[in-house]
Amino acid sequence: MSELVLYRKWRSQSFDELVGQPHVTETLRNAVKTGKIGHAYLFCGPRGTGKTSAAKILAKALNCEKGMTPDPCGECGICRGIQNGSALDFIEIDAASNRGIDEIRDLKEKIKFPPTLCRYKVYIIDEVHMLTPEAFNALLKTLEEPPPSTVFILCTTEPHKLLPTVASRCQRFDFKRISQAVVEKRLEEVGKAENLIIEPGVLPMIARSCDGSLRDALSLLDQLHSFCGQTIQKEKAELILGQTPEEVLSRCIHLLDSKDLKNLLIFLHETYSSGADLSQLVRDLMIQLRQILLFRISPEILSLLPEEKERMKAFSFSSEELYRFLRVLSDLRNELRSSPHPGIAVELAFIRMLRIQWEPSLEGLKKKIELLEGKIQKNLAETPISPEPHPALKKEKEVLVKAAPHVSSLSLDFIRDTWGEMIENLAASRNSLFPTLQQTTPLKLEGAVLFLSVPNLILKSRLDQKKEEVQLFLNQTLNSSLQIEIEAHPVDPDLLIREAEKIFEGAVLKESDG
């Protein structure tokens, strides 16, 4: 006789052994203690979380030869019969292969008979969502008012497919995905009982791969046992589980963190050429980046060792970057399912991550503006406006100062005559005031206040922000103590048209009303 696989050998035999579902086990234990047994239960949740095991444990608790108890002995004939499926009053139905109305009619005929040996006749209908609508309708009345001493336990991974009329007749229990820590602890217990030597890091890999399913985790451990023997090595586990080696993942994250696109693309090319599964690389990278993001936002969510926390602190990612990276990688995973060129898809996604400004999107435009602002700030820092005039203006300033009268004797005509020369000198010296003053015109001079005219409100706003710099420049150049005021005077469109007529020696043609 072949040896049982681990997930069958280590299937939970009591409520105490049913891990990861305390809300379910506590409620069922109390129901058995008080004798308040429902006639129909609905166990729903992801695969491998203990639905069928809980149903069998409840059946044993109701029918144990030592009495109805939340802790069945597991040794009596009825407990063993329920466990191996040979008990006459324990009927387990696979709705995936018995989904029609004829099977339900047969069930309704047999359910009329009372239990033979047990206190309760227990029907477990697995994957109940697979029943046809006709079969559901045939089951409704029986499910609502079953014969005395009959209990239905419906199990499903897709409760949304059940008819509301069916679900409303049952006590519903939602089984949750089992946490990674609980899965690791259970695998460690099974490994010790099986005399397995498991290298550090293997159990977390299995727990991450099983997606909250303890049955899947035990199957993976069984597979590794078959491949590695009694000593399960981390390197071989990575090969069997298909997970990305830590050094590869670490290298990828380091290149992302340093924004080194060139070497990142070389790394991706080498990884793809070596035959690595790019889908798995993307999946594992998402897990790591998610951990870094959660550590930044809410570190108490994660159970990390001190050295792992220090590693997380060393990264320079911003939370906004991590969020954007995860979003791009999520789109990439969907694309890889149907992409004929996965290598190209991965490369383009990583370019999007590190060169967002290349994207024709709102985010790309925002990044371009940020980069442009950075360059402007750098240029301003390199050419600051100081109390001393720019070297290129010194000679011109000396000439103007000799000719310039004091504020009391300054005239608007003199300022207008010298205005063009001052603007040209600003352009020659690459002073940041040049683009701002280029479109200004001296309007009037009232005492020590010089009014400057600009063609629109946008330029007025910009010039208002640099008002002090402009005043400093004018007073240094004119050897004066002027104050300036800015006024916006939009250009008259009709005036522009008249000027155009003069230049081009033509006339404006107007379309007739007819």
Any key phrases for this structure?
4 domains; 514 residues; Helicase, Ruva Protein, domain 3; single chain; Zinc Finger, Delta Prime, domain 3; Rossmann fold; alpha/beta; three-stranded mixed sheet
Task: Describe, in plain words, how this protein is organized in 3D.
The chain is an alpha/beta fold and 514 residues long. The protein has 4 domains: 6-174, P-loop containing nucleotide triphosphate hydrolases (Rossmann fold, 3-Layer(aba) Sandwich), CATH 3.40.50.300; 180-241, Helicase, Ruva Protein, domain 3; 246-358, Up-down Bundle (Zinc Finger, Delta Prime, domain 3), CATH 1.20.272.10; 391-493, DnaA, N-terminal domain (GMP Synthetase, Chain A, domain 3). It is built from 24 helices and 10 strands. It has helices at 6-9, 22-34, 51-63, 77-84, 101-110, 133-144, 164-167, 180-193, 202-209, 214-228, 234-241, 246-257, 261-273, 278-297, 306-313, 319-336, 342-354, 362-382, 391-403, 412-428, 434-437, 457-465, 467-478, 493-504; strands at 40-44, 90-94, 121-126, 150-156, 171-174, 197-198, 231-232, 441-446, 449-454, 483-488. The strands form 3 sheets. Strands 2-3-4-1-5 form a 5-stranded parallel sheet, covered by helices on one side. Strands 8-9-10 form a 3-stranded mixed sheet. Strands 6-7 form a two-stranded parallel sheet. It is elongated and about 120 Å long. Residues 395-405 have low confidence and may be disordered.
